[in-house]
Amino acid sequence: MGAVEFRVGATDPLAYACGLLRTAAAKGATLVVRVAPASITELDARLWTFSQLDFVPHCRDTDALAARTPIVLTDVLDLTAFGGRDCLVNLAPTVMTGWEVLPRVIEIVGVSAEARQAGRERFRAYRRAGCEPTTLEISA
After folding, report:
1. Cβ 79 vs Cβ 99: under 8 Å
2. Which of 13, 68, 89, 106 has the CA that lies 20 to 30 A from 27?
3. From its phi and psi, is residue 98 left (phi > 0), alpha (psi between -120 and 50) or beta?
4. Among 126, 92, 89, 118, which residue's Cα sits nearest to residue 104?
5. What is the domain-level CATH number for residue 60?
């Protein structure tokens, strides 16, 4: 079971994720990014446009190039199939399964009351699974 870190207080979670993914990709990391179905298209578009100087290589999990692409976007509930990746970045509000196969999990939690409540529920789910998440307050 990997390390779980909550990054709490993102005023724009998708923008924060774009910066995080850019940094991770530059370091050669392979990530799976779990996004709510309603936000996956927006994150995909933002990764193409958020920086004029950087390319963040990404695709959706259904793409033929997913196995060779450093960053894969998905909205699945079971992440077991992504066990070969270095890290999970979770932007979705719901609890998922299969995260234990990944060496690291980063949860990005927004500032709204709904986002914070959903984050607390995921935090408790990790604890029930025997993991002790860490928390980092961010102001981004």
Report:
1. yes
2. 13
3. left
4. 89
5. 3.40.50.10110
What would the pLDDT profile of 42-100 be if each residue is shown by its tens digit?
999 999 998 888 889 999 999 999 999 999 999 999 999 999 999 999 999 999 999 99
At 48, the amino acid letter reads W
Domain span including residue 45: 3-137
**Left if phi > 0, otherwise alpha if psi is -120 to 50, otherwise beta: which for 26?**
alpha
DSSP 11-67: SSHHHHHHHHHHHHHHTT--EEEE--TTTHHHHHHHHHHS-SS----EEETTSTTGG
How many domains are contained in the chain?
1
